[in-house]
């Protein structure tokens, strides 16, 4: 499999995992209404930040396929590190999140590893 296809496919898997974890977290929060009361007016800011951060993997699906070698390799490493920080830093100890985050961390580390091993020759 060509490295661009591999990286792009890995980003699809990461994104699906992020969505799945977030959907489950939303369900948990809706059940626990006190979580919504704590956020108060910060809900809009929190959702705006989440929208920016979750767009990193979405954009990487496309960028991994179309960008030239040097910028593609560098952007995959940077995006994976930023996404890794988001997954670990924004996490919770709920069982569903630990499972999804564990898979995401492994995939993101593999993306970093693959990008680092990527040579300019096909």
Structure description:
By secondary structure, the protein is mainly alpha-helical. The protein has helices spanning 3-31, 34-39, 42-66, 69-89, 95-117. The longest helix is centred in the first third of the chain and has 29 residues, at 3-31. It is elongated and about 55 Å long.
Oligomeric assembly: single chain
How does the major sheet shape up? none
Derived from helix and strand composition plus strand pairing, the structural class reads: mainly alpha
Give the end-to-end Cα distance, rounded to a whole number of Å. 10 Å
Low-confidence stretches: none
Report helical residue fraction.
over 70%
Radius of gyration: 16 Å
Please tell me the total number of domains: 1
SS element count, helices: 5
Mean pLDDT comes to: 84
Q: How many DSSP-defined strands?
A: 0
Secondary structure layout plus pairing:
Blueprint: H1 3-31, H2 34-39, H3 42-66, H4 69-89, H5 95-117
Helix pairs in contact: 1-3, 1-5, 3-4, 4-5
Tags for this model:
122 residues
Can you describe this structure in just a few lines?
With 122 residues, the protein is an all-alpha fold.
């Amino acid at each position: 499999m060509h490295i661009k296809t591999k990286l792009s496919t890995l980003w699809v898997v990461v994104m699906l995992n992020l969505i799945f974890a977030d959907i489950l977290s939303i369900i948990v929060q809706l059940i626990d209404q006190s979580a919504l009361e704590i956020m108060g007016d910060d809900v809009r800011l929190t959702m705006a930040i989440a929208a920016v951060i979750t767009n990193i993997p979405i954009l990487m699906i496309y960028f991994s396929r179309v960008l030239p070698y040097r910028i593609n390799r560098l952007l995959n490493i940077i995006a994976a590190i930023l996404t890794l920080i988001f997954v670990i830093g924004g996490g919770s100890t709920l069982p569903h999140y630990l499972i999804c985050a564990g898979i995401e961390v492994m995939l993101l580390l593999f993306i970093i590893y693959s990008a680092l091993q990527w040579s300019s020759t096909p």
